[in-house]
Amino acid sequence: MELLQRLSESDGISGFEAGIGKVVEEEMRSAGAVVEVDRVGNRIALLPGSEDGGRLLLTAHADEIGLIVRKVDRGGVLRFAAVGGIDPRVLPGQEVMVHGEKRLPGVIGSEPPHLQLEEEKDRVVEIEDLFIDVGLTERTVRRRVKTGDPIALSRKFMEMEGGLCAAKAFDDRASLAALVLAVEELARRDHRWDIYAVATVQEEIAHLGATVSAYGLDPGLAVVLDVTYGDMLGVDKYETYELGGGPTLGVGPGYHPRLRARLMETAEREGIPIQDEAEPRPRGTDAAAIQLTREGVPTALVGIPVRYMHTSAEVVATADVEGAARLLVEFSAELVDVGFLLNPDSITQDRA
Q: Which residues bind Zn(2+) 2 (predicted)?
């Protein structure tokens, strides 16, 4: 819980991940990993293997959705644009943190319904109609805030009943927590392969960090962690996955069937509940970028169900975070070679 809280309450929108990056770096170093920062800001933690087995890449993205200042408007309010996929309907009344000259708290305001014309009341608010009030004079705001300054959504971590918790940025800090937990355990375990655990940058807009890190590290295998759609009222069950039902494993043309089969075998042996996530085409995760790197990287996707994704009140089950971490640990620790990729006896999902 403490790790989830620390990660979720740290800011780092796409392209401005320095804050969350430092937190991840501290956590990885304290676990005993060697951590480097590459040219684009990825945090790369290395756990050297006991033998020359190969390179295993484990990733979760560090960035979150957010906003960016477009201009300081009349009266000192800030006009802004979205960074990543944000639904404008969830923004009015939202608390934010403007990262200008100094951290500057504010709220997103809009015209009260009492003052709206009748034809405006049923209209969906556009992001261009919204503004941020930081409580300062226009002159002071213009001195302290510049066009291009990043803005993070603000929300305190909340522990709920039933093993759930709510916060902003669980996409993808829930996966990042699982990655850190895995590094902590693997640092105490024997493993043959060199393990590279990477907190990637700019997944929400361009998969930049995943593309660069996969190219530079040239791994033999990759397992990507990201969130997936948690069960919620009003959405068909076949489109969502149960919170507390365990992490998901992607199955479809975007993921290597034999790597997925080995992960499934590991989960079954260790008693880790798994939910199948069928995808007819790769969705917008770092897995799509990594598998196309160089001559191709066999890649699998592990998902953590999150309810109310891309809002500031995302909900996750801590058991799913812990399950994803255990899966990474046991799979990584038992990895000897890539012979299973070529062994048809190990294929449980490939029907071709």
A: 171, 204, 310
pLDDT tens digits for 44-61? 999 999 877 799 999 999
Reduce the DSSP state of residue 59 to 3 states and report it. Answer: strand
Show Cβ contacts of residue 43 under 8 Å, excluding neighbours closer than 6 positions: 21, 24, 25, 28, 35, 36, 37, 62, 198, 199
Distances 182 to 242, 284, 308, 323 between C-alpha atoms, Å = 22, 24, 26, 10
The verdict on pTM exceeding 0.85 is yes
- Tell me whether residue 268 is one of the annotated catalytic residues: no
β-pairing verdict for 299-307 and 248-251: antiparallel
Residue from 9, 203, 314, 330 carrying the catalytic annotation: 203
Render pLDDT for 154-186 as a digit per residue (tens, 0 to 9).
999 999 999 999 999 999 999 999 999 999 999
Class in CATH terms, 66-153: mainly beta
End-to-end CA distance of the chain: 43
Which residues fall in the annotated binding site? 61, 171, 204, 226, 310
Binding-site residues for Zn(2+), in ranges, read: 61, 171, 204, 226, 310
pLDDT digits (tens, 9 = 90+) for 307-341: 999 999 999 999 999 999 999 999 999 998 877 78
The CATH-assigned architecture of domain 2-64+168-346 is 3-Layer(aba) Sandwich (3.40)
Domain layout of the chain by residue ranges: 2-64+168-346, 66-153
